[in-house]
Amino acid sequence: MSDVTVGGGQEVLGVTRIDGPIMIVEGAANISYDEVVEIRDSKGRLRRGRVLEVGEEMAVVQIFSGSTGLSIDGTSVRFLGDTLHMPVSEEMLGRIFDGLGNPIDGGPEPLTDHYKDINGLPINPTARVYPRDYIQTGISSIDGLNTLLRGQKLPLFSGAGLPHDKLAAQIVRQATLGKPVGTQTDAEAEEFAIVFAAMGVKNDVADYFRRSFTESGALNRVAMFLNLADDPPVERIVTPRAALTLAEHLAYDLDKHVLVVLTDMTNYGESLREISNIRGEVPSRKGYPGYLYSDLSSLYERTGRIRTSKGSITQIPILTMPNDDITHPMPDLTGYITEGQIVLGRELFFAGIYPPVAVLPSLSRLMKDGIGKGHTRDDHPHWGAQLYAAYARTQDVRALASVIGEEELSEVDQKYLKFGRAFEREFINQGSDENRSIERTLEIGWKLLSIMPKNELTRVTLDEIAQYYQEEDAAN
Asked: Which residues lie below 8 Å from residue 324, measured CB to CB, with a gap of 6+?
């Protein structure tokens, strides 16, 4: 091996070892962690990578596009002396890129001289603005009971075969900046700029998103970063970081409200585990690296609002839980870092309900600060608590009915069963193209609460009952 200096960077001819997407390079000094490298094979073909680990005249390099075709003696590695940067501009909206940010839609390279580090910069906690403005997704189970706020990170926990892709596409099409009931018209609804990143998805899933955005007219405000299942797994480590780098530029430099959708974060975790195993690191739970929590935090915490910008980044990561196991390391740690979760239920899905949002295990920790007076409607907090309590009681009644039979239940318990069926059929269930306003969501909720006797409504006030309770429905 030998090394030469080229254009201010070191170039090493020959490498020590190649193991999958990992390469050991010796003979280079003063190499920095996360430094970008250019790798050329014996035929002169170029690929890129980054430094994962450094030592005395030794570096561990991660190759983004895999090591196929590389040889020990015929490979040259040039260290560029800087971290990975990518061009960012508003022109990237409406475009489709690969996992590294290179255009794959046949269009030109973005015309910009603005480059940003894909690793971003930590947000000073004192510069953050607390999220208080709700987002109207048009989905009752989210807007009403698990409200998403501007600047929040709210993951979607799903499982194999569940319609999380369909739900994510619907949120992208419908999401607007929410305003209090009675103050927003369709003409005033402000839409989000969307940054969509897919990691390890199949071609048909990528085509579904592309087609869905195109047919709805949303594609012109969507920047798509696609890492497909047959693309190099190592590229998946970069994909969400590239997407978030563009989101930060749109939000904090151009004052736009940005919605970031990341799917599937479980595939991201698998790539992280693969690299960790090749490097010989001591595995943690289920073989994942011990730094999984901090690595996920470096992605999720690039979300929010800051005092120096009018823009915001709201993040919806999607995770498919292996065997529907919510204690799996990926959803488990994601739940600790983020501000709640939307959980899709398989029983609801089998019952033909869309979207099959399981209300009871779902949670939005910031919801209380973005609903009620000045945000949605005054009765929303009490209304939400009452719906949740009634549906929770319904599950207890269903368990009792499975033992003693429905005919043996009390009259009040019979009402709870009726409420539960109507709640799933009319409130949770809605068409994939049905875009409900927050006012319509509240109206449906009160209609369902009117099934219950008034003395069972202990979470709402008497004034709210007098204004919204529908006597004729209670009598039916």
From this structure: 159, 346
103 shares its domain with 57:
no
Which tokens go with 388? 């949740």
pLDDT tens per residue, range 380-394? 999 999 999 999 999
Asked whether residue 102 is domain-assigned, the answer is yes
Provide the CATH number for the domain around residue 104: 3.40.50.12240
For residue range 411-433, list pLDDT tens digits in order.
999 999 999 999 999 999 998 78
pTM of structure: 0.90
CATH code at position 48 = 2.40.30.20
> Which residue numbers in the chain have pLDDT < 50?
1-2, 4-8, 187, 473-476
User: Is 298 a member of any domain?
Assistant: yes
93 and 242 together in one domain: yes
Residue-level pLDDT at 185:
55
What is the identity of the amino acid at 201? V
2-6, strands of its sheet edge to edge: 2-6, 9-13, 76-83, 35-40, 46-55, 58-63, 22-26, 17-19
Residue 375 lies inside a defined structural domain of this protein: no
CB 443 within 8 Å of CB 363: no
Domain closes at, from 25, 59, 83: 83
Contact assessment for residue 117 and residue 245, using Cβ atoms and an 8 Å cutoff = yes
| The two three-digit tokens of residue 11, written as one number | 């170039």
Q: Identify the domain containing residue 268 by its residue range.
A: 87-369
Beta-carbon contacts of residue 357 (< 8 Å; ≥ 6 apart): 139, 141, 142, 146, 342, 343, 344, 345, 348, 428
Phi, psi of 376 (to 5 degrees): -115, -85
Check if the beta carbon of residue 262 is closer than 8 Å to that of residue 197.
Answer: yes
Give the whole-angstrom CA distance, residue 62 versus residue 20. 9
